[in-house]
Request: fold
Amino acid sequence: MALIKLRPYFEEDNLDVSFNKGQLDELYEVFKNDFVYNPLVVNGKRIKIIHHRSRSEQY
Reply:
């Protein structure tokens, strides 16, 4: 996974969510590559990413 590439955006003790547009675009590209285009497999089971809004009100 390329998520290790995100490490420079997060400090060890503090998560800062004030990203600029370029950083958000990069984060989204890493997300798409690691979770959308390539299957996420946990204990031999594929995790499906659903791209539309939930029909359940609590989500």
